[in-house]
């Protein structure tokens, strides 16, 4: 039986090979995701402009609510929230979500770079001084006034139509930066997660630690478990978490 299976497998592989191998060889140009802090000014502006393009590309799927492709991504997250948080699918779902966003930037908005990430351990405990909040080469600063609307930077005039939460109302991108809540994103806590031996202990460590630090440290819509992708910082935050997962996987690739 074992021999039969082995030879069937060999036949299958032999037949499948001509179909599979051309797909494998087309991936000649790998992109490399880099930390926002390490991007040049022009790389930052290219990314910001591509995101603004996604925010002005009309919605394609005929769903009720979204006006733009950016809104459609946000709505998917709202709809899937109960299935994708506090479960093992948390990291895989968000890996796929970051890839979808990156793919849309590249295919709809002529973006040629990779999805950048925010190395939050560098800024933990001091998010308010982060370069990510720069009004020219970042995402603008903290919210102000009664509605905590951001009032500088490239995204200050974007009208979110999805959220807050599961509601669909017109509102600004709002933030309530908390240096205190960002402390849980420290290198010490990240290093602790990296020591976890099993996925079943690794993902809750990431979700409860650095994940919570990024959402709580930026605050406002970023702190809303449903509608947080209404703040474009969301994509740099989750790409960072995805990198942490990759770093952990890379410690033992065959098992992880
Ligand atoms: C790979 O990237 C180089 C430099 O950007 C470009 O000239 C080349 O056409 C790319 N090749 C493919 C297959 O996309
Ligand atoms: C992307 O590039 C193509 C080809 O140059 C152009 O026709 C198209 O308008 C560009 N799209 C955007 C959103 O800039
Ligand atoms: C936060 O960072 C800024 C700029 O690097 C620095 O001036 C400030 O002292 C830092 N604050 C704290 C509490 O570390
Ligand atoms: C990892 O999982 C294995 C198998 O379930 C278990 O024996 C082991 O104690 C776990 N290790 C940790 C550090 O949780
Ligand atoms: Cu999420």
Automatic annotation (TrEMBL):
Cell cycle keyword on record: no
Pfam families the UniProt entry points to: Tyrosinase
Keywords attached to this entry: Copper, Metal-binding, Signal
Signal peptide residue numbers: 1-16
PROSITE patterns tied to this protein: TYROSINASE_2
Boundaries of every Tyrosinase copper-binding domain copy: 231-242
Molecular function as annotated in GO: metal ion binding; oxidoreductase activity
Protein name: Di-copper centre-containing protein
Native source organism of the sequence: Melanomma pulvis-pyrius CBS 109.77
């Amino acid at each position: 039986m074992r021999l039969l299976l082995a030879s069937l497998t060999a036949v299958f592989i032999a037949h499948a090979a001509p179909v599979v191998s051309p797909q494998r060889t087309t991936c000649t140009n790998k992109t490399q995701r880099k930390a926002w802090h390490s991007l040049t000014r022009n790389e930052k502006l290219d990314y910001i402009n591509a995101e603004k393009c996604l925010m002005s590309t009309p919605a394609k799927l005929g769903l009720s609510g979204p006006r733009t492709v950016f809104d459609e991504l946000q709505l998917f997250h709202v709809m899937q929230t109960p299935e994708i948080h506090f479960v093992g699918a948390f990291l895989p779902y968000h890996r796929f979500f970051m890839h979808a966003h990156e793919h849309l930037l590249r295919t709809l908005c002529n973006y040629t770079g990779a999805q950048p990430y925010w190395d939050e351990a560098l800024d933990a405990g001091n998010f308010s001084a982060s370069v990510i909040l720069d009004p020219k080469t970042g995402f603008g600063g903290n919210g102000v006034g009664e509605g905590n609307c951001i009032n500088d930077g490239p995204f200050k005039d974007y009208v979110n139509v999805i959220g807050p939460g599961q509601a669909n109302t017109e509102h600004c991108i709002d933030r309530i930066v908390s240096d205190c809540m960002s402390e849980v994103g420290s290198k010490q806590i990240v290093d602790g997660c990296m020591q976890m031996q099993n996925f079943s202990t690794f993902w809750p460590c990431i979700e409860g630690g650095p994940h919570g630090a990024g959402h709580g440290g930026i605050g406002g819509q970023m702190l809303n478990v449903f509608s947080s992708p209404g703040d474009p910082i969301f994509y740099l935050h989750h790409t960072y978490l995805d990198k942490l997962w990759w770093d952990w996987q890379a410690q033992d690739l065959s098992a992880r």
